[in-house]
Amino acid sequence: MHREEDLVRRVQRREPEAFGQLYEEHFDRIYRYILLRVREQADAEDITQQVFLKALEKIGSYRWRGTPFASWLFSIAHNLVVDYWKKKSREKVAAVAPEEIDQMVEESSNDPAALAELNFDMKQLAAACEQLTDGQREIISLRFAGGLSVAESAKVMGKSEGAVKVLQHAALIKLRWILCPAGEEANG
Question: What's the domain count of the chain?
Answer without folding.
Answer: 1
